[in-house]
Amino acid sequence: xxxxxxxxxxxxxxxxxxxxxxxxxxxxxxxxxxxxxxxxxxxxxxxxxxxxxxxxxxxxxxxxxxxxxxxxxxxxxxxxxxxxxxxxxxxxxxxxxxxxxxxxxxxxxxxxxxxxxxxxxxxxxxxxxxxxxxxxxxxxxxxxxxxxxxxxxxxxxxxxxxxxxxxxxxxxxxxxxxxxxxxxxxxxxxxxxxxxxxxxxxxxxxxxxxxxxxxxxxxxxxxxxxxxxxxxxxxxxxxxxxxxxxxxxxxxxxxxxxxxxxxxxxxxxxxxxxxxxxxxxxxxxxxxxxxxxxxxxxxxxxxxxxxxxxxxxxxxxxxxxxxxxxxxxxxxxxxxxxxxxxxxxxxxxxxxxxxxxxxxxxxxxxxxxxxxxxxxxxxxxxxxxxxxxxxxxxxx
Length: 396
Fold this sequence. Notes:
Blueprint lengths: L1 E2 L2 H11 L11 H7 L3 E2 L3 H11 L5 H10 L3 E5 L5 E5 L3 H26 L6 H22 L4 H7 L22 H10 L3 E6 L8 E5 H4 L10 H16 L4 H8 L3 H10 L3 E5 L2 E5 L14 E4 L13 H4 L3 H4 L9 E4 L2 E7 L7 E4 L4 H19 L11 H8 L1
């Protein structure tokens, strides 16, 4: 069994994640493909993740790829998380992950409809949901694109309220609107289009997937084949990694993960006493990368690519993650995390190093902070999931 050291893993990260000097991507699509997909739960992350990997890229370039060229698509994917995916790969993500999510979420929504007394019994609630979905899809097709509010006007049943956590202090009665649109999206029938407002907005117009993309997401591989394709893509970008890493990242069962690794003929390697996996022929050392520094946004796909992160995170978890496991903005040097960054009200990028990295690396960090201050041009980013260090830097 070949051994792959921590230094080697860090060198691979710098080159394959397009962060190292001389390793950058040419455009937003190549940046996304290098990561399999970009996290999009926080709308700012997509643009910042691209800008970290594509020198000279701006918000307009990423928006062109998303909404004009449609070479990138925003969709639900791994771990029931929203991602931006290169459009040709979207059917693979849909079949490998999202279709299973859609089945589970439909059962859950029917359960909640039944608890709210929308219809008599689960079967009747399922029929009610199907009817509302079809009516909503028809309304959207007639409009071409629409907001949730516009669709609620067309289909009044979308204003039906659920009863969540009844009797609890956090009880709520939300409209069913977002759940129905989520379900239609999870099944690949509708897609998120342009945001309402700026590039920081989390509200989007919706469009029928068949109108947004030629053929929509209907022509996709079988689930097992898609999982093999997704595992191969993950190993290409994130390998070596453990089976637990892949299972966590994809949101699969242990059995699904084991079958996918076997199907790609993944090669076992020694990760300092742990069994890791790489693609066949990928055991050789990576070409060395020149010293580099990168500022990555909260939820960037690099730190969220593995379940086991000690080899690049070190002792800094408590300062850089929130209490639900979401990472905030980070500073990287040569494949490891060395600090974090944030923005006060004035808008400039502030940073804090969490270890002594020497004069040369500190100079690179200072230069990169200035670059990000200029790139943001006064726009203040408040991450959706805030780490302790980001709060400190933003409020101090």
